Amino acid sequence: MPDSQQIPDGSSTTLPRVLHTPRSRALLSESWAQAAEAKRMERAGDDLQLTYEAYAAGEPCRACGRALLGEPALGTDEESLALIDADNAEFRAEHTACNMGVWRLENNRVEHCHLCCPFPPLSPTQRDELRQLLYPPLLHIDRSATWRVGLTCQHVETLVGHSPRYVEPTVQCTECAVIRGVVKAVRIDDQAKAGDGGSDIEGLQPDYQRLTDEQWSWIKHIVHTEEGTRRGRPRTDIRTIVDAALYKTRTGISWRELPAEFGSWQTALRRHNQLIPSSQWDEITRTLEERDLPQ
Question: Where would you find the membrane-spanning parts of this chain (predicted)?
Answer without folding.
Answer: none
